[in-house]
Every structure is written in structure tokens, then in C-alpha cells.
Amino acid sequence: MINSSRKNIKGIVIEGITLFSAIIIIAIVIIMLLVIFIGGKDHLTWEFLTSFPTEGMTKGGIFPALYGTALLVIIMSIAAVPFGTITAVYLTEYAKENSLIAKTIRFAVRTLAVIPSIIYGLFGLGFFIKFVGAHIDGAFFGGELRWGQPNLLWASLTMALLTLPVVIVSVEEALKTVPQDLRAASLALGATKWQTIRKVVLPGSVSGIMTGTILAVSRGAGEVAPILFTGAAYYLATLPGLGDQFMVLGYHIYVLTTQSANVDQTLPIQFGTTCVLLLLTFTLNMTAVILRYRIRKQKNR
Amino acid sequence: MIMILDKIHTENMFLYYSGKMALKDISIKIPEKKVTAFIGPSGCGKSTFLRSLNRMNDLIDGVKIEGKVMIDSINIYDKNIDVVNLRKKVGMVFQKSNPFAKSIYENIAYGPKINGINDKNQLEEIVETALKNAAIWDEVKDRLGDSALGLSGGQQQRLCIARTLAVNPEIVLMDEPASALDPLSTSKIEELIVQLKEHYTIVIVTHNMQQAARISDNTAFFYIGELIEYDKTRTIFTNPNKKQTEDYITGRFG
User: Fold this and answer.
1) Is the minimum CB–CB distance between B98 and chain A shorter than 8 Å?
2) Under 8 Å CB-to-CB from B136, ≥6 apart: which residues?
3) Which residues of B187-206 are buried (b: 16+ CB within 10 A; e: fewer)?
4) Would an 8 Å CB–CB cutoff place B94 in contact with chain A?
5) pTM to 2 decimals?
6) How confident is the model over B97-156, as pLDDT tens digits?
7) Chain A within 8 Å of B74 (Cβ-Cβ)?
8) How large is the ipTM?
9) Which chain B residue shows the shortest CA-CA distance from A205?
10) Residue B155: exposed, middle, or buried by beta-carbon count in 10 A (0-12, 13-18, 19+)?
């Protein structure tokens, strides 16, 4: 009798502790979102989104950072999505499940996924800028510094490397949801393997490829470390092209909080920018979650 | 006397699955424009044999084939055989209906399109003919643009047959095409098979002995990877030669 009530108390205590830690997590999320939203809500205006920073970045909007972020993720996607999709196609359609090459590729993908993002930044600097860029300058521009310095292109490609594992895994998952029966049906009609992939397998995985793209974009939109050395700029008065440095939301927040001459004056804009970045990644992730849920439902049908 | 041509014939064919013998010394002659049924208990190799006739077994790792598999007197396992062309000539209908997640029209047009037919009128004609030949035209002619996945199981299977016919094959292999269907849909498929033999050589694997008896001209009985007996369907079902065949068709095992 005594024994069992002791057990009861122990159980209640353990349940209490676990519940408490769960509540702390929820509280942190709510507080974080509330603080950011309350601080930034006045800035969620069309004007804030569409105007340039003014007066030493204490006033005005974040348009160039938004523009830079958009360009960054678009160029990144153009590089990462086809490359990732092709790799996923190789893994699911061509490579034998347990072959050495498939295992090696999977190992490489997993490794890419756990490399800290700052290392990508260093790699981008070393490979794209100091190696590829410098050689382009040497070969085509007589050594004049054009591509051998940080710019939008190198930053986007560096980001593409970072997001590649996300794309590969998502697309692979989607390709696997296409039933083997359909591949057999296509082949039995005299289709080649490539025709089968192009006309049956890939169309059946469009939403998976979309999910991968969106997840990659949302990751890329939020990361700062890979672009620190490869292209992000403090402030630019003009909108960038491929060969220019560019402003970007995440880096803009960093700049406002650490590099500004008057941090207190930039505080409202920091909140506003954070709010925009959060909304952006949040929306993207939700879209990906919904798409992925729909794919899973389709698979279980 | 009418000459009956052997459309398919195998000689001393062996099939190994990762080194294990799955088919042993199969020699059979399958006549043109007849329905030939393969019967036998599960795992007897009848489906494996069927799938080796259009080389669908190529898709499985570790399958090795010895002996001759001749279609129109050409060994389809010769090095210079183009598997893609072979499969255009030897179509296949699967156990589980497997329409593409496309419209009814696109399902049928798929085969002709990959064969390079792009003319819209020609495609429409092929689609209509194929659907008519598969006895499903009247049910779908007003909704060719609808998804094929919205059709009933029986309709889907006839659609798959139509899809196979649209490539204009000479041989149609059917792997238990009615095993997942209700009796009414099954009888429709059976009727269809009997009609199809006017133009096509049909080889059908079935678990259902009544079905084999109803629709086939010749029946082959497989048991543990061997072809035990092969004869006119009537002979197999009324007066089989081998005791194993008799035991199977009278339901003593399997």
C-alpha cells in the first residue's frame, strides 16, 4: 500500500517535470514570436518593404535586402534543384540499392548535410572566389579583378551547395512514392528507361521536387554564414547584378545590430527586418509541410 | 489442313534467380492467335516464365536465363535484340491494374506517343480503336479527359488492356489480369480475351482453373519450376496424362 503510493508520487513528479519542460519550450516560442511581432509590426508596411534604407540605416525600408534575398534564392534554386534532382534520379532509378557508388553518394550527401554553414562560406571563398573567379579573371580579363571577388553569383552557388542535401533527400523521397507498377507498365509498352523517367516518374514527383525546392529556399533565405565571405554587403545604394555584392535580410539584421553607429536608433528596423525574415521562412516551411503531407497521403492511398 | 504457326517457342529453357533454379528445362510451343493458359500453384514459376517472354525479368537483379526463347523464330535473348522493340511487339497486362495518373486519353496515347506518333487525328483514331477493342469505349467515350484513376477496378484493367493494344503488339501477355476483380468485371475481361485472339496471340497466367477452362485453347500446367503437362485445354481438364495434373485440377492440392 505504502509502496504503491510512493510509486504514484514518483510518477506524478516525473510527469510534472516533463510537462514543465514542454511548457517552457512552448513559452519560449510564444515569447520569441510575440516580442518580434510586437516590436516589428509597425514596420510591416508596403513602404518598409519597398524603400531603400535612409539616414545611415536608421530610417527607411529594406527593399535592397529583400531584393538581394530573392535573387540569392532564385539563383541558388536554379543551380541546386536541377543538380539535386538529377542526383536523386540517379540514386533511385539507376544505381543499384546497395552498390558501392550509391552508398558513397548517400554518405557524401549526409556529410554535406552536417557540415557547419560557416565552412561552406570558407569553401565558397576558397573555391569559387579565389580559385574559379580568379582564374576567370586571369583568363578573360587580363587579371583585372572582376569575378575574383565576392558577388551574388558566388554567394548563390555556395548557398546551393549548402541546400543540395535538402533537395536530394526530398526528391528521392518523392521519386520513391511513384509505384514500381507504373514503371513496369511504361517499360512493357516499349518505353525506354529515360522515357519512363521523363514521362511517368518525374511528373509523378512534381510536388516532391517542389517541396525540396521550397525547403531549400527557406533554408537559404535564413542562412548568413555562407554568404559572409562570398557576397553579402553592408549597404548598397543600387540594386545588384550577378557580379555585384548584395544586401540580404539575415545579414542586414546582423549589420544593424553590430555594425551600426547607433544601434538603438536602428532597433525598430531590426525588429521589422526580423519579422519579415521570420514570416518569409515560416510561410515557406508551412507550404513545404502541407505539400509533403499531401504526398504522403497520396502514397498511402 | 490449316497450318498453325508457333508464335513463341522455348527450348530447354532454364531460369536462375540469384543462382537458384526457378525454371527447369521448359520447352513449349505456343501457337499464333490462340489463347494459351498457364496454370499451377503459387510459386510454380508460371508468372516468372510469362515475364521472361517479354524480358520483364531483366528488371530484376540476379536473373539469368539459359536455353532458347524464340519469338517468330528469333531468340529474344540474343545480344543484338532491342528489348524496347521486343516489348512493343510483346505487350503485357499486369495483375494489378496500373493506369498512369493521367487522363484516360493520355493513358492510351502514351504508347503511340513514345513511338513517335504525334499527329492529333491519328492519335485520336488509335485511342478510339484501342478502347473499342478493349470493350470499354462506350463507358468512357464522353470523359476521355477525366483521370483514369477515377475508373472502377474492372474498367481500369480494361483500360490497361486498351493501353497495351494501342502499341499494336502481336502478342499480349496477361499476368492474372482478373484476379483482383469482381465476378462481373472478370466475365467482361474473359469475353474480351476470347475476342482478342482473333488478332493477337494471348498468353494468360491464371490461378482460376475455371477461367483457364473457359477461355483458353491450350493449357500448360507448371509445378515447382517445371512444365508438367501441356495440351489442348479440353484434354488437360478432362483427360490429363500426368497424375500431378489430375491432382491439381481436381483440387487435391494447390
Assistant:
1) yes
2) B155, B158, B159, B162
3) ebbbebbeebbeebbbbbbb
4) yes
5) 0.82
6) 999 999 999 999 999 999 999 999 999 999 999 999 998 999 999 999 999 999 999 999
7) no
8) 0.90
9) B101
10) buried
Cα separation of B57 and A188, whole Å? 11
- A232 pLDDT tier (thresholds 50, 70, 90): confident
Inter-chain CB proximity B59 and A185 less than 8 Å: no
Closest chain B CA to residue A97: B61
Nearest to B87 among A96, A179, A188 (CB): A188
Distance in angstroms (rounded) separating the CA atoms of residues A271 and A267: 6
Cell of B124: 485520336
* Residues written for chain B: 254
Choose the most confident range, by mean pLDDT, from A48-52, B60-64, B130-134: B130-134
Smallest CA–CA distance, residue A94 to chain B, in Å, is 11
User: DSSP strand E in B45-178: where?
Assistant: 63-71, 74-75, 90-93, 171-175
Q: Does A206 touch chain B (CB under 8 A)?
A: no
For residue A204, the chain B residue with the least C-alpha distance is B101
pLDDT higher than threshold 50 for residue B1 = no
- State how far the Cα of A124 lies from the Cα of A227, in Å rounded to an integer: 8
